Amino acid sequence: MRFSKQLPLSAAKENLRRLIAIRGLALLVLMTGVYYAHSYLGAPLRYHLLMLIISLMLLVAVASVFRLRLPWPVTDVEYFFQLALDVFALTLLLYFAGGSTNPFISYYLVLLTISAATLPWLYTWLIAASTIAAYSFLVFFYQPLTAATNAMVMDHTLQRESFFSLHILGMWITFVASALLITYFVVKMAQAIREQDDVLVRSRESALHDEQLLAVATLAAGAAHELNTPLSTMAVVIDDLLHEQADNAELREDLKILASQVQACTRSLQNMLEKSAASTSETGEKVVLVDYIQSLIDRWQLMRPDVRSQFHLESNGASPHLRVDETMNQAIINLLNNAGDASPERVDIELSWDRENMLLTIRDYGAGIPLALADKMGKPFVTTKRKGIGLGLFLSHATVARFNGQVALYNHEEGGTLAELSMPLELWSKFE
């Protein structure tokens, strides 16, 4: 199944981009630590090996940046190996710089947290096992981090106290850095995954909605094809009966009523085909919003003279000019019909707009929407009417959504149902 909307940059690529940024910050901190150990502590470390490992990780980071420009998707396996490489490189660095006594060893938790936020549980367990194994190894095997001795400046006790203070300070710095990294980057990574999941859910819902529309269109086309033949037959039979019953005035009146109903059905089928062609070609008529809504209400009142309605204009100033198609006319009339069916004695209609949006509200004073059907309203073949088929509201939702608008139904606090049709004016004017 293909989705109609293109997904944004994948969450995996965004997370790899953030991992590269975290790696860069960690390497910067490590280089600072190496510089401090060499220039101020005079620690006898293998600085050439430490700088070689840091340089290799910088090359990996640069290569990863160029890799992000490639169209290949970032898989969970690739992301796992990126994290595993960081674990391995950190273990090598700590082995030559104090092992478990180095405060930077808590950076393992940052890598583990990133894995837990972005990878499936199997890969996370593998990262957890590797970090535990690395930490356990560094407890027993490492090259001590000591300063050059200078008996004239400090004795052994002072040197030990100085290193203990530096260790505490290093632990604090590492904790603060780890907390900031986890709070910002890991939360962003998890948010990227949730956002992509939401996009996928909306895309699946849109695809299902399109399938439902296609099913309804198929049913309508089949019904139109099947009805055409019997309507033609009925028209011929009624015409013959009118000629045969020329002397029966009462029967002729009934036959004329039947003939007019058949003609109305035939016109409806023809109009449906014409509207489909107009919708496909995306032609539309330029209208003034207030006049357009008023004309629809007048047209609806001719069809529903039994309904009493009141139209209120809530905005002042010049009305915006729009270009709409026939499907929007039917969508609004469907909402008016629903209100008229619910309370023919009173229907309140209000129209308002601002610089960006228009809002049409239709309130009836009927029984409202049953709570059992509240979540299903707007889906095909769901209706509160005994003789309804449940397609009017569904088609209204589909038509308005095509213009990036929205139809919402509420149970009014004073009784009845409130239907709100909102539409961004710039998208309603897309034919301009």
Q: Which sequence of strands runs across the widest sheet?
A: 2-4-5-7-6
Structural class: alpha+beta
User: How many strands in all?
Assistant: 7
**Average pLDDT taken over every residue:** 76
Number of helices: 11
Low-confidence stretches: 1-9, 149-159, 279-283, 386-390, 427-432
First-last Cα distance = 33 Å
Helix and strand pattern: HHHHHHHEHEEHEEHEEH
Radius of gyration in whole Å, from Cα? 37 Å
The global form is elongated
Q: How much beta, percentage-wise? A: 5-15%
Q: How would you portray this structure in words?
A:
The protein is an alpha+beta fold and 432 residues long. It folds into 3 domains: 196 residues, no CATH class; 67 residues; 144 residues, Heat Shock Protein 90. The protein is 63% helix and 10% strand. Strands 2-4-5-7-6 form a 5-stranded mixed β-sheet. The protein has a two-stranded antiparallel sheet with strand order 1-3. Strand 4 and strand 5 form a beta hairpin. The chain is elongated. The N terminus and C terminus are likely disordered.
